[in-house]
Amino acid sequence: MRPEWEGIVELGSREADLIDQIDFNRLPQHVAIIMDGNGRWARQRNLPRIEGHRAGAKSVQEVVETAARLRISYLTLFAFSKENWKRPKQEINTLWHLLEEYARSRENVLLKNDLRLKVIGEREGIPQRVRRELEKLERLSADGQRMTILLALNYGGRAEIVQACRKLLSQAELKPDEIDENTFAQYLYTPGIPDPDLLIRTSGELRISNFLLWQMAYTEFWITPVLWPDFRKVHFLEAIVDYQRRERRFGGIGSN
Ligand code: IPE
Ligand code: IPE
Ligand code: MG
Fold this sequence. Notes:
The protein is α/β, with parallel strands linked by helices. Helices cover 41% and strands 14% of the residues. The protein has a domain at 28-156 and 195-244: Undecaprenyl pyrophosphate synthetase (3-Layer(aba) Sandwich), CATH 3.40.1180.10. The protein has nine helices and six strands; from the N terminus they run αβααβααβαβααββα. The structure holds 3-methylbut-3-enyl trihydrogen diphosphate (2 copies) and magnesium ion.
């Protein structure tokens, strides 16, 4: 086993076996995750939904640790969608409270591990206290080189495209035929960031739920029935191994 995994995964374990299968020269540069299934996890245990969200924090920690150790450059986590405002007020409030708590406790982890945090989504709608905490973390971690964590909050894919149009019209003095895909992409929330190579969705739902609509034009999807609070290193590694078995054609004819 590679030395950087010693003490992190057990020798002879399924994780160790998966790590041996990974081709470190062909890792995805950007992995995006729809962290879904917290409510169902709680319901299975007769707990309030919010306990599922609370338990999901451990999965976030495992995924961040594993992705950083693999040297994946960008990890995007979908934590709150623009559509999630339709939920009961109490769930929404507690969810933001958890996010605020989480942000408060992350400073050391980010700085110690050379990680950068960037929030994507409509900032104006994020509760003030949470926004302040997150923006502080963004400033403090701005020089992180090892991996960028993109936290999608109050995020909607269509809303992102509409705000890009607005920004482009108000800032750029471009003629219509000077706008191409690359210029347009600079006005999204992700300028300069490569599109996700791999999307992971937990809890078995076969839909995109308005996530990164523009950026996922050619992303490979990996969907697991595992609920987010049960998601561990082993699942992340399985996704990477499966991704490496795929042939990405981008509309071409591939190699066979
Ligand atoms: C995902 O879990 C977390 C958020 C959307 C905030 P859910 O809360 O959607 O869990 P399910 O889908 O109801 O099980
Ligand atoms: C997507 O999950 C949003 C997040 C994980 C933050 P949802 O649970 O909101 O998606 P739908 O409603 O099942 O499509
Ligand atoms: Mg859900």
